[in-house]
Amino acid sequence: MAIFLLVFFLIISFINILFYIGYFSFANAINVDSKSVNLPVSVIICAKNEAENLQQFIPSILNQNYPNFEVILINDASTDTTLEVMENFAAEDNRVKLVNVINNEAFWGKKKYALTLGIKKAKNNYLLFTDADCTPVSGQWITSMASKFENEKTIILGYGGYIKKKKSFLNLLIRFETLLTAVQYFSYSKWGIPYMGVGRNLAYSSEEFYNQNGFATHLHVRSGDDDLFVNQAGSSKNTAICINRESITRSVPKLNYKNWLLQKRRHSSTASNYKFQHKILLGTFYSSQLIFWCLLVLLLILQVQWPLVLGILALRLLIQYIVFWKSAKKLDEMDLVWLFPVLEVFLISSQFYIFISNIFSKPTHWK
Fold it and tell me: Residues in domain Glycosyltransferase 2-like (predicted)?
């Protein structure tokens, strides 16, 4: 039995390490400075009960150093003063256009319906998406993302991080999960099989949207306006990544575990709609992580070839460290590097809880 466990551990370790070696495709990617462009861009923001965040963050959008853009603000049937805040911005700046979505029983709670109306309102072919609680880290955000629209590239994946909060382990965990997810979707794109993007920082052309018939194939899925669209439309030919530090956006993170877990449950519920190869690869990676740590603890308790087991752990941690260090340096998340083994264990536990919870009940509307 002990030999079987050791062999299984070696196989799982090999699989998991192989994934991290594959992630060097992103970790070693070269940051390219943004070039000057003047493509007409429509920045699209869908908001539901986000009056305070809009008031705080929309100025960072309007103050972008870019000559040719409009901002489409979508009020998705808010019950607070979101519409009033939007109207104030529109009155002060003629680049701001409004879409006011009234509750529709057939589409209630469907962000994709609201986004579709916003896309139809946009006058420009190049669409750049972010959230109401997001702010670009620089005035070159639009320039950085728009500069990647070239040749056949019609989908641009950016990094949407979270605002740093001092003395908060939850904040570290949220940002680590976001960093790991980014390492994955950027790497998969570099491999030629893009599987997702994040709506906090995502761009695509309206032509690509209409060629894909919008969100029609997954309109029944409550989430996934970002990842399911990229999963459906993305390819090695039409998808590019933008990892210039000036292209980063940051969002307001959740402040308690309950709200964060609910958010992650909603996001993870879309994964069953991914393409088969993506589900296999992602499932294999997460399973190999969980099994690795379980077998590691078990083998150490049983003292089965413990020098070999610890050697495998050291090798894995070294490869992980290099990947996370290089990736975090690109994405300005360096404070996460030193804690990654602890954060990984907590994240795996959280993901297992999310997986089990989603088996018994599905999250409801996006807000």
Answer: 42-174
